[in-house]
Amino acid sequence: MSLIDVLVPEEQEGTKAVVRGWLAKLGQRVEENDPLVELETDKVTQEVPAPAAGVLTEILLDSDAEAEPGALLARIDPAGEAAAPQEAAPEPKSEPKADAPAPAATSKAEICKETRLSPAVKRALIQHDLDPSHIEGTGRDGRVTLEDVDKAVAGATVSHVGKPATAQPRVVEPFDSADIPHDRMRKTIAGNMVKAVTDAPHVTALFEADFSAVAAHKAAMKAKGVKLSYTAYIVKAAADAMGAAPAINGRWEDDRIAISDTIDIGVGTALGDKGLVVPVVRDCGAKSLEEIGAALDDLTARAREGKLERKEVTGGSFTISNHGVSGSLLAAPIILHGGQAAILGIGKLEKRVVVRELDGQDVMVIRPMAYVTLTIDHRVVDGHQTNGWLSDFVARIEGWPSLS
């Protein structure tokens, strides 16, 4: 029986992929869909599963090697026999010393070099001053996940506040001033950011939007059995606002400003500790609110399952970053896609006291408010177009028609 090739997926999110580490060893028996190797780009870390059951007989790309789409990673022999494990020599017995020093806590530099930790996990460990060796990993093969770090932080907090009799006070370690070496993802992100702001002069405008009308419409739709996210309303309002400034849906070319024929909106979707992808909702200008909501639900679900195709994360003409879902009130996202002229940022939706005119008098009322920003490529769009687009967008959000 012939060997089975393990290939780098043709669809990947990010500019360049490298082999982060092998999860299976040469000579090891694997089953179909078992994770074999992790690939890392500037945006995500993804596992490549075994295409069939068998024995991993050959590895063609080692750790840190560049992995081009379609490249040969390894080969599996479906009829192979797993290598017999070698018996380890018995360790000499020794009496433990009562005064043996405890192992030193893992430093920042050591955490950064650890290949079994994702970038998000490394950042969380450093932020909360935690040693990964003291955390029980629930990921595959015992790897520490972001959820494991969160539980460790929560456990430490509860123990400190509750002060149970058996709890020990948390020891505050001295500040670790060791430098943090760059990893591949950080270097790639840095390169992309510098290129983005170097190629396109960025300007950001800030408005505020009252989501009262959207919240009422959303609740009425839910009562009718149709569940819609706030993001669906934001995408629909953004698409409809393109008529106020068509260049927002365009891009810079050497001889012209090219306006896209369709409104294809990418929506940033977080993947936990595996980064972020931007699935694209096609032709939003021709879709109803319900159709946009259904498309978003489908794309988001498949994004988190790692089942998006390359064509579904490329070719957008405009991007929305709903950063408020993670708690941010205000941000000015950078235009990372060279074929776009603007990116919309939506801050956290929260109740705030605002002044409204009622019966000819100014009164203070509580409304669900959010800051919205539009960052533009100033080569393509000027200030009056930016403000005109945002004014139209906010008016659509605040004047969303009632179902009654």
From TrEMBL:
Needed cofactors: (R)-lipoate
Domain of life: Bacteria
Keyword Transferase assigned: yes
Domain Peripheral subunit-binding (PSBD): 116-153
Record-linked CDD domains: lipoyl_domain (cd06849)
Keywords in alphabetical order: Acyltransferase, Lipoyl, Transferase
SUPFAM superfamilies: CoA-dependent acyltransferases (SSF52777), Peripheral subunit-binding domain of 2-oxo acid dehydrogenase complex (SSF47005), Single hybrid motif (SSF51230)
One Gene Ontology term, aspect cellular component: cytoplasm
Span list, region Disordered: 80-110
Keyword Transferase recorded: yes
GO MF term (any one): lipoic acid binding
Pfam families reported in the protein's UniProt record: 2-oxoacid_dh, Biotin_lipoyl, E3_binding
EC identifiers of the protein: 2.3.1.-
Family, similarity comment: Belongs to the 2-oxoacid dehydrogenase family.
Designated name of the protein: Dihydrolipoamide acetyltransferase component of pyruvate dehydrogenase complex
Native species: Sphingomicrobium sediminis
